[in-house]
């Protein structure tokens, strides 16, 4: 991927504080939820959730997810990839990117049930909705 494409993807991801993440339940039904998010320079996406949530339980079963970031006003990103739970040390090192983009998430930082995850995209589809027709680009990461 060229540096310009990487910067474009990063800009779309970083312009949004929320994403919809979809996981798979134990009986293989889809489950989606809105979560706060942040993005690293290498296009990994950070988010937190309670260890008691359905998505956290689903992620312990299967690391495969899809997500959507951005629904207005300029662009949207559809994402497929894998998720890993961060260790406490890794969360401390990486979460400043998350908190910078999603400041309300700090409220949960010290909650004993809060867990942090990192999504490593394998495929991203960017749709620029300001052009007619829409401009669509797909990237394998």
The largest sheet is: 8 strands, antiparallel
Instruction: Specify the CATH homologous superfamily.
Output: Electron Transport, Fmn-binding Protein, Chain A
Mean pLDDT: 89
- The succession of helices and strands, N to C, reads HEEEEHEEHEE
What distance separates the N and C termini? 8 Å
Class based on secondary structure composition and strand pairing: alpha+beta
- At the fold tier of CATH, the topology name is Pnp Oxidase, Chain A
Detail the poorly predicted runs: none
Roughly how many Å is the radius of gyration? 15 Å
Helix content range of the residues, please?
10-25%
Count of discrete alpha- or pi-helical segments spanning 4 or more residues: 3
Annotated CATH architecture = Roll
Query: What portion of residues belong to β-strands?
Result: 35-45%
Which class in CATH terms? Answer: Mainly Beta
Tally of DSSP β-strands: 8
What would the principal axes of the Cα set say about the shape?
Answer: globular
Count of the domains: 1
What does this 3D model show about the protein?
With 141 residues, this protein is of the alpha+beta class. The protein contains three helices and eight strands. The protein has a single domain, classed as Pnp Oxidase, Chain A (Roll). Strands 1, 2, 3, 4, 5, 6, 7 and 8 form an eight-stranded antiparallel sheet that branches. The longest helix has 14 residues. Strand 3 and strand 4 form a beta hairpin.
Summarize the structure.
The protein is built from 3 helices and 8 strands.
Top keywords for this entry?
141 residues; Pnp Oxidase, Chain A; eight-stranded antiparallel β-sheet; 8 strands; globular
């Amino acid at each position: 991927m060229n540096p310009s494409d990487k910067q474009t993807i990063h800009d779309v991801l970083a312009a949004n504080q929320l994403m919809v993440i979809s996981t798979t339940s134990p009986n293989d039904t889809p489950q989606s939820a809105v979560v706060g998010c942040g993005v690293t320079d290498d296009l990994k996406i950070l988010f937190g959730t309670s260890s008691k949530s359905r998505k956290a339980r689903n992620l312990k079963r299967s690391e495969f997810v899809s997500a959507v970031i951005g629904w207005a006003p300029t662009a949207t990103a559809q994402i497929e990839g894998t998720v890993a739970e961060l260790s406490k040390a890794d969360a401390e090192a990486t979460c400043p990117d998350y908190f910078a983009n999603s400041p309300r998430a700090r409220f949960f930082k010290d909650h004993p049930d809060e867990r942090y995850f990192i999504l490593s995209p394998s495929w991203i589809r960017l749709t620029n909705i300001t052009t007619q027709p829409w401009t669509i680009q797909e990237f394998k990461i």
